[in-house]
Amino acid sequence: MGNRMTSINLLDLSKAELSTLLADWGEPGYRADQIWSWLYRRFAATPEEMTNLPKSLRTRLAEETRLDPLTPLTTLDSSDGQTRKTLFALPDGPQIEAVLMRYEKRRTLCISTQAGCTMGCPFCATGQGGFIRNLSAGEIVAQVLYYAQALATEGQRVTNVVFMGMGEPLANYTATWAAIRRLNDPAGFGLGARAMTLSTVGLVPAIRHMSHEPEQVGLAVSLHAATDELRDKLVPINRRYPLAQLMQACRDYVNTTHRRITFEYALMDGVNDSDEQAHQLADLVGNLLVHVNLIPLNPTPDSPYRGSSPARVRAFQSVLERRGISTTVRLRRGIDIQAGCGQLRARYRGESANS
Length: 355
Ligand code: SAH
Ligand code: SF4
Prior knowledge:
Layout: E1 8-9, H1 15-24, H2 30-40, H3 55-64, E2 65-66, E3 71-77, E4 83-89, E5 95-102, E6 107-110, E7 114-116, H4 125-128, E8 131-134, H5 137-152, E9 160-163, H6 173-184, E10 196-200, H7 204-210, E11 218-222, H8 228-234, H9 243-257, E12 261-267, H10 275-285, E13 290-296, H11 310-322, E14 326-329, H12 343-354
Helix pairs in contact: 1-2, 5-6, 7-9, 10-11
The chain binds S-adenosyl-L-homocysteine (SAH) and iron/sulfur cluster.
């Protein structure tokens, strides 16, 4: 395959860009359709597999482009076999994670949009690790294609994609939305926009921007606290976009899109999990069209925060339910494989350092 660092990543090209490239190479127009289908419907890993292309074109693709932006480094399966996490290396070295969660009918992928994160949430392994760089659209999509290819060998497919892995998707807006469109393309991967959910720490201008995108992607907002005083600590970007601004952007989003927002609330022992705080949360979301996802915190080694007890989780949930707010408790899948955001990378580092 071509030089990894300098050649074109085929997965970074839009369909129009691929067509232009092939036209420049003097190829007929239908070649772009053929290659598109190999990439996004048949998950070809090399140009050599694209058997309906002439040999000369396959050779040129192999010399001048690449489509292996991710190298799997290590894979962990949860003890129940339902969750699989893969740590990948990007061509220039940074590591990212993607997680496959098997539910009864769904095959949900949790993917990364950045190597690291600038937001510095103190309970999050990714935040603790600092920021390296944004992923390209191709690097985001490649995580999905990797698992799609693996599932295809079992006669299964990816049914849902959540942008909840490493990084803040709305801080890498252009590449994230290019990836969403690529995955949504009916002539390509063909995943319905409603089968995708983007989770944000609460970047207000980008939430407003997103409300005008035509694709009906689900929005999840990581709240974790219902007062500015506490949220300033848990989610430092709150100092820039405090709750009043964030909630106004959420109200406007619901009014514009008529879609429900999910609020994520990671329950931390003795920090944000009292009945009083549940009432504050209910007051904050008020009559907004929302769903609250309660997640007992998955503790990371370097942070003082601990997950709430199951009894406290239930008590917190019942306050919200009594206040008429729809909730679910999301048990973190695959705790035994460090499936929390950024945790496998942190562990892999630790092990490499110890060995
Ligand atoms: N940056 C985005 C998306 C990636 S994080 C965001 O913050 O929303 C995805 C979700 O995992 C967020 O709700 C985040 O707060 C949560 N999260 C991060 N670390 C966690 C941990 N240790 N335990 C439970 N949830 C965690
Ligand atoms: Fe970044 Fe999200 Fe982790 Fe905060 S929770 S540091 S925004 S990845």
